[in-house]
Structures are given as C-alpha cells and as structure tokens.
Automatic annotation (TrEMBL):
This is Leucine-rich repeat-containing protein 31. It comes from Patagioenas fasciata monilis. Residues 1-26, 57-106 are annotated as: Disordered. The gene is LRRC31. Signal peptide: none annotated. InterPro entries: Leu-rich_rpt, LRC31, LRR_dom_sf. Residues 1-18, 57-72 have a biased composition (Basic and acidic residues). SMART domains: LRR_RI. Residues 88-102 have a biased composition (Acidic residues).
C-alpha cells in the first residue's frame, strides 16, 4: 500500500515538472484516445522509468550525461515515428487547404452580395441602405482579405454599422488601394471614430471620406483628425450635420496643413461651428487647391464673413461657395466682399436665406458681375431685397455663362422683374429659372416673352405662387406651339389659384408639344380646394402624348368619382407609369 502511494507521489511530481504540451501533442493524444477505446493500446514506459528519466546520476551507472541524452533522443524519435505511422494508418486527419488554393473566399463574397440583392464588384462595394446587421458588418470584414483591388466602400444609411466599425477597420490593411469611404448616417460612435482614425495609416491612398449625418461625431472629431498623417492624399471631406462643436472646428483647422490636396470641404448644417470659423478661415491658406466650400447653415456671423473673405485671397481655384442659410451674416457684405470679386474661377454662388439687406445688395451688385465664370446664382428667400435687386439683376447680362438663376421669394417689384427680363436676353445658356413666390410675375409674364424665345437650353421653369392668370398660361402655350421651350423637363405652376378653368383648357390643349417634359405640378395652395373642371379630359388626352412624363402634381384638386377612376386606370390603359400626386 505504501509502495503504491510512493509511486503516485512520484507520478504527481513528474507531472508537475513535465513541460506543457504543444497544440500538436494535444491532437496526437486525441488520436491515441481513439485507438485505446477501440482496443488498441500503445506500449507505455513504466511509471518508475518515467520518474527517473529526468534525473542526472552522473557516471556511477556506467553512462555519462551525453549517452543518456542520446538514448532519450533516440527513444523519443522512435515514439514519434510510431505515432505518425499509427495516425496515417488509422485516423488520417482531413487535408488542410490554404487560402490561396481555396476558391471559398470569392464564393463567400459573391454569396454575401447576392444575399443583399447586390451585384458583386471587387472594386466598388456599394452597400448603401441595405439594412445591414452587425453580423453582416462582421462578415464583410472577414471578406476584405479576398478583395485586394477594392477602391470604394459605401455603407451609408445602415444604422447597425455604428458600434461595429472596428471589426471592419482592423481589416482595412487588406485593401490598401482604398480611395473612397462613405459612412453617411451610420450612427457612428466615439469608438468608431477612434478606430477609423487608427486605420488612416493603412489606407494611404484614401481620397474621399464622407461621414455626414452622424450626430455622435460632435465633440469627438479630434479622435479622427489627430491621426491624419501629414501629406495624406485626402481630396474630399464631408462632415454634414454631425453636430460639430467649436472645439471640433479648431481640431479641423489644425489638420488643414496635413491635407494640402483637399478639393472639397463640406461642413454644412453644423450650427455651432460658426464660432470657430475665424480659426478655420485662417488655415484655409493651407489648402490652396480647394474647389468647393460648403458652409450652409453653419451659424456664421458678420465677423465670420470677414474672416472668410480674407481667406478667399488664397483660394484662387474655388469653384463653388455656399454660405446660404446663415441669417446673421445679413448686413455684413459691405465689409466682406473685397476678395470675393477676385474669384475668377467661381462657378456656383449660393446666398439664399442670408437675410441680405438693401445695403448688401448695393455691394453685391458691384461684385457679382465680376465673377466671369459664374454659372449658378441663388439669391432666393432674401425678402428684404425687395426692389433694390434691380441693379444686380440688370447686370446679370455680364455673366453670359449663367445656367441657373434662382430668385424665388425675394419680393421682386415690377421694375426688378423687368431688369431681369432684359438681362435674360443675354443669357443664351440659361437652363434653370426659378421666379417662384414673386407676385409681380402674375400678369407680367409677357416681359419674359423675348427671353424665353431665345432660351433654347432652358430645362427647368419654376413659377410657383406667382399669381399667374389665364393670360400667362396662354403665353406659355403660344411659346410651345411656336417651337420654343422644346427642351423643358420640369414645369412648376403650383399654387396659382387665380387661373380660370378656361386658362387650364388652353394650356392643356397645347401641352402635348412638351415631348421631354418629365415633371409637371399644377397643385393648389394648401388652404384651398377646387373642383377639377372641363379641362380634365384635355389633360388626360395630352398625357398620352407626353412620353417622358413621370410625375404629375394635382394636390387639392377635387375629382369626381368618374374622373378619379379614369386617373386610376390611366397607367394600365395606356401602359404608362406616371406617379399622380393628388
């Protein structure tokens, strides 16, 4: 009994001193266990031999240390050889296939894309608005090693990306050719922003980054910007409506010198960033190649406008400037347009809803006509402009490249409208004209008669809530019948309740000539309703001859039961797919 206890004690000590087995040893033991259970047992050394194997007794037993080691090595080799033979004969493991040999990566990617209803594309991964789950994001991350040529990743409008982005960013080193990353409205968290910052180093070719509509980024932008490497290739940075703070603005300003290739900077709808606009403006000199600057609804004030104007002297390549929706800059243009006039390459200027004053208009009337490359001008929703806009509108003749003029809801007077009509004669490339919500247009559309005859390129005409009368519609009909406005695609005549049924009849009779018209809106004002009269049949007859029409707005027109049925059956009867908004 005592001898057995001693042997157990020795065995326990041996197990304590035995080195930990390797993973391969574990696999071997599993196979040994299987053989034992089937009745086959490999001869094991005695417990006593195992116990004394690790001890050194010198040369008293007739063997020196080297002989003992040699014997152990030989024995060990014999045991390993027997084990290998046993494995190959009895329980041969399945053959492992390397990633290079396995086609499963490509197959898995194709299956993943098909599951989401998308076509597999190994260069452009477009998964926008696919209702991705967290598991989908994890699966996508595991597929990146099989997409070495990937250049674009778009995961926008997938809320579940938020909180899981790290699983993706840690795999981005497999796609180091990545140029475009879009993560709009993904509910990104602070951890996501930090992990994205860490990934910048492994995507050195990144040129476009869009993080718009992720409100949790606000206050945490530094987690991203501090990781940007000097001289990175970023050309486009969009952070629209991300609840950015003044501190975020300062963080952004600090890294502008690290992204000298920046061409597009969109900070729109971040109302708190205006407080740091002076700091940002000072560092805009570090991005002299900037082509688009969007500061729509950024809480800019008059002093912000002054700082921005100073920065414009360094932005000779600027093509688009949007400072709309900043109501507190009104009255500040008189001191902030010195360098605006020097933007010879500017093509788009958006000043809508800026509470521009009459004094501002006086200054802008001197500056805007100097922007010789200007193609789009938006002065809409500046109600205080009133009659003071006529000097500027008259001088638009000096901008022959203008393609879009938007002056809706500006309280134009007849004199200003007349000046615009005269200037429009010199705008041969005009494609979009928006005069909505200017009551003076009603009854005076004839002032635009000659201009509309010459506007061979016009595609969009908006005359909503202009107090139009039957005479104005008759004028449009004559223009149509004479072959003018042939390229018109969108016509907005909504909220003109004063047009008589007779006026609509005449208009609908001539409507069939608009072969390229795709959208027509004749809705009534929200506070009103009216029976759809005798012109309804003329309208349906005209619709059959408008092959491009896709949408018809008829809100608040009251249809009889028979008229409603005719409208409901129109698409089926005529094999069309028009969306009726009634």
């Amino acid at each position: 009994m005592e001898e057995t206890d001693d042997i157990k004690s020795c065995q326990d000590k041996h197990e304590e001193n035995t080195p930990k087995s390797s993973p391969f040893d574990f696999v071997i033991k599993q196979f040994q266990g299987k053989r034992s259970s089937s009745g086959k047992r490999k001869e094991q050394p005695s417990i006593i031999k195992e116990f004394f194997r690790g001890f050194d007794f010198g040369k008293s037993e007739g063997k020196d240390r080297r002989e003992i080691e040699k014997t152990e090595i030989n024995n060990s080799g014999d045991d390993d050889q027997r084990e290998k033979q046993d494995l190959s004969v009895e329980d041969e493991p399945p053959c492992l296939i390397s990633e290079e040999e396995s086609p499963s990566g490509k197959e898995r990617f194709n299956q993943f894309m098909e599951k989401l209803g998308k076509k597999p594309n190994t260069k452009n991964l477009d998964l926008n608005n696919c209702a991705l789950s967290a598991a989908d994001v994890t699966e996508l991350a595991s597929l990146l090693p099989f997409l070495p040529e990937l250049e674009e990743i778009s995961l926008s409008w997938n809320g579940c990306v938020g909180g899981t982005l790290k699983s993706l960013t840690v795999q981005l080193h497999h796609v180091n050719l990545l140029k475009v990353l879009r993560l709009n409205n993904c509910r990104l968290t602070a951890e996501d922003v930090a992990s994205l910052g860490e990934a910048f180093e492994v995507v050195p070719q990144l040129e476009e980054l869009d993080l718009s509509w992720n409100s949790n980024i606000g206050g945490k932008l530094s987690l991203l910007t501090k990781k940007l490497q000097k001289g990175c290739k970023l050309k486009l940075l969009k952070i629209t409506d991300c609840n950015l703070t003044a501190k975020d603005g300062e963080s952004l300003a600090e890294i502008l010198n690290a992204i000298p290739n920046l061409e597009v900077l969109d900070l729109s709808i971040n109302k708190h960033i205006g407080c740091s606009m002076k700091v940002i403006a000072q560092d805009l000199k570090n991005v002299p190649g900037l082509k688009e600057l969007n500061l729509h609804m950024c809480g800019l004030k008059q002093d912000s406008l002054q700082g921005l104007d100073t920065a414009l002297q360094h932005l000779a390549e600027l093509r688009k400037l949007d400072i709309s929706g900043n109501k507190e800059i009104g009255g500040g243009f008189k001191d902030s347009t010195v360098h605006l006039a020097s933007l010879r390459n500017l093509e788009v200027l958006d000043l809508h809803q800026c509470c521009v004053t009459e004094e501002d208009m006086t200054v802008l009337s001197q500056v805007i006509p100097l922007l010789s490359s200007l193609q789009e001008l938006n002065l809409s929703s500046n109600k205080n402009v009133g009659v003071s806009s006529y000097p500027l509108l008259g001088r638009l003749r000096f901008l022959p490249k203008l393609k879009s003029v938007a002056i809706s809801n500006c309280g134009l007077g007849e004199e200003a409208f007349s000046s615009l009509a005269e200037a429009a004669l010199h705008l041969p490339e005009l494609e979009i004209l928006d005069l909505s919500w200017n009551k003076c247009v009603g009854g005076n559309l004839k002032l635009l008669w000659e201009a509309l005859k010459l506007a061979t390129e016009i595609q969009v005409l908006r005359l909503s809530s202009c107090n139009l009368v039957a005479e104005d519609l008759a004028l449009l009909t004559l223009l149509i019948q004479d072959g003018h406005l042939a390229r018109l695609r969108k016509l907005d005549l909504s909220y003109n309740n004063n047009i008589s049924d007779e006026g609509w009849v005449v208009f609908c009779q001539g409507l069939a000539v608009f072969k390229e018209l795709s959208e027509l809106d004749i809705s009534l004002r929200p506070s009103s309703c009216r029976d759809c009269g005798m012109w309804f049949s003329e309208l349906l007859a005209a619709l059959t001859k408008l092959p491009a029409l896709a949408e018809l707005g008829m809100q608040r027109w009251v249809l009889s039961e028979s008229q409603r049925k005719r409208l409901e059956n129109f698409n089926e009867d005529n094999k069309r797919n028009i969306r009726f908004d009634c």
